[in-house]
Design goal:
mainly beta, 10 strands, RmlC-like_jellyroll, RmlC_Cupin_sf
Length: 128
């Protein structure tokens, strides 16, 4: 059995902060599960264009309000607690935290190592 807490991640290398986000990477590739599990905060007023070309990502909103836009169609969905969106086709998307910070529980497959940085197009390199 593997047991971790959010506090185990805070202020470690797995706690990544940027201008528009904060990613607390609780489970990573080194945990050997085949997926990674993140507690992510998207900061109010921020807009991020992302496209995970090498990963599938599922996101479940547990706090805040905002929206996600599918770049290919321009379709926009509101995000609020209880809403999930899945980037099952490596979808280019834009996430906006419009009303408040958004807090998302995110699962990536294949698992992230925790050392990834977004490329210029908003994606992560393929896992090794």
């Amino acid at each position: 059995m593997l047991v971790k807490t959010l506090s185990d991640t805070l202020d470690t290398a797995a706690h990544v902060k940027g201008e528009a986000f904060e990613s607390r990477r609780i489970l990573l590739a080194a945990d050997g599960l085949g997926y990674s599990f993140h507690d992510t905060v998207v900061k109010r007023g921020s807009t991020q264009r992302l496209e995970y070309k090498n990963h599938i990502e599922a996101n479940y909103c547990i706090e805040g309000e905002g929206e996600v836009e599918e770049v290919a169609t321009g379709r926009v969905w509101p995000l609020r607690p209880g809403t999930m969106y899945v980037l099952d086709r490596h979808d280019a998307h834009i996430i906006r935290a419009t009303v408040s910070d958004l807090r998302l529980i995110c699962i990536f497959t294949p698992a992230l190592s925790g050392e990834e940085l977004h490329d210029a197009d908003g994606s992560y390199a393929a896992s090794k």
